[in-house]
């Protein structure tokens, strides 16, 4: 893994490949709906279309690398990045 530099989609894909032992990529296999454990009701359905997921991940990468946001509190920026990543849910087998 990289020891310095910005977090990119390539880095995210490499981390996923290392952790999960596959190179499935972003959204090539439909992900899991998030359900209420008590009722089974779907409470969130992440994007399922691979092109949409790639577009959203590209947008997230641009946000991460946007130097105009360097004045933002790093914890706020990290919280936004985490929320966006989890909302996109780009991997079918773990995020």
From TrEMBL:
What top-level branch of life does the organism fall under?
Bacteria
Active site, per annotation: 89
Query: Gene3D superfamilies in the record, alphabetically?
Result: Fido-like domain
Fido domain: which residues? 7-95
Q: Which residues cross the membrane?
A: none
Entry-linked InterPro entries: Fido, Fido-like_dom_sf, Fido_containing
The protein's name: Fic/DOC family protein
